[in-house]
Specification:
This protein is mostly helical and 326 residues long. Helices cover 72% and strands 0% of the residues. Helix 2 packs across helix 13 (234-257) and helix 15 packs across helix 16 (297-323).
Length: 326
């Protein structure tokens, strides 16, 4: 129903989901024994390649189904009116968060390799955010060019009705960059608890005026669903970044209160997070070919639980084999 759909949109898009993952990625760059900018850039390239491979695996079951039955079932019900070839193009060039993460790692790796100062990092991010205000939504009149530029700022394709631009660099670099800067302070902090508490409270207080401004400018009406979420402007960028760190702070302090024996599963999920992310899309791409086009809330929960258990097990098995060199 509408309430369930609204709840799903809110919990999936409200600051704390993708923003937190990208911020944590930036923080963790500083926590390896020997931070290596060149190695980070190499990982970025691999993530971009992996992102495009994932997009192919997303559409592959649908292509097989199309050849067998003449029906293409895709991930994107909002594009149900689209032609099959348009859905194929959109899926193949969809800017998955893995692709954005790879682009961000290349930039942050270069920052580390060439020892770029914090001031310049902040300047680069602000320059991108300002440029995004003018470039987002620009139509070149060429769908291939719009697809390419969409990896950098928000664009649409096929007469403006669809988009492949889901995590454009100019809108989202602020999160891993902020994480990187926070990580530099966190590494040097004598008391991580005091650091989290002080900076978290500061960010929370700073978020209030941005929330007030957002309330008067319509940020909360369109900023967390559809293109408003992906093609974020500067105001939402700043507000989301502040609250994303507060989510991290909250999780940190809650985890300190939970007995260690209850955290074993969360440690496993943390280690396997990339495999979980990739596998859940691959498995889902297969099973949606056999599922009805719509079902109720109970069906959603049953499918979610089954998918959760299956992907958790598969990620554990595959990561274990890869770790052993199998």
């Amino acid at each position: 129903g509408d309430a369930f759909s609204g709840l799903a949109n809110l919990t999936g898009a409200f600051p704390g989901g993708a923003q937190c993952f990208m911020m944590v990625m930036g923080i963790l760059l500083l926590f390896s024994t020997h931070p290596d900018g060149k190695g980070v850039m190499r990982r970025g390239v691999l993530l971009i390649i992996g992102g495009f491979v994932l997009e192919f695996l997303r559409i592959l079951p649908g292509l097989v189904n199309l050849m067998v039955t003449g029906d293409l079932v895709s991930f994107y019900p909002e594009y149900a009116y689209a032609e099959d070839w348009q859905l194929i193009v959109i899926t193949l060039f969809w800017q998955d968060i893995l692709i954005f993460a790879g682009m961000a790692l290349i930039i942050m790796g270069a920052v580390m390799r060439f020892d770029v100062s914090d001031v310049w990092v902040i300047a680069i991010v602000i320059a991108m955010m300002v440029a995004n205000l003018f470039l987002s939504g620009m139509d070149t009149g060429s769908d291939p060019l719009n697809i390419f530029l969409g990896y950098f700022w928000g664009t649409t394709v096929f007469d403006g009705y669809m988009t492949t631009s889901r995590f454009p660099l100019f809108s989202w670099l602020v999160d891993p960059a902020a994480g990187y800067l926070i990580g530099k302070w966190l590494v040097r902090a004598r008391s991580k608890g005091r650091f989290y508490k002080t900076l978290g409270l500061s960010f929370l207080l700073l978020s209030v005026p941005f929330a007030v401004i957002g309330a008067f400018t319509g940020m909360f009406e369109s900023g967390f669903t559809g293109l408003g979420f992906y093609h974020q402007g500067m105001l939402i960028n700043i507000w989301c970044t502040l609250l994303s760190f507060d989510w991290i702070v909250l999780i940190y302090f809650v985890s300190k209160k939970v007995p260690e024996r209850y955290l074993a599963h969360t440690y496993r999920w943390s280690r396997n997070i990339t495999w979980i992310y990739v596998l859940h899309f691959v498995v889902l791409a297969i099973i949606i070919q056999f599922l009805p086009r719509s079902f109720g809330i109970i069906g959603c929960f049953v499918i979610f639980l089954a998918l959760f258990v299956l992907v958790d097990w598969l990620s554990w098995v595959i990561r274990g084999r890869v770790g052993r060199g199998a």
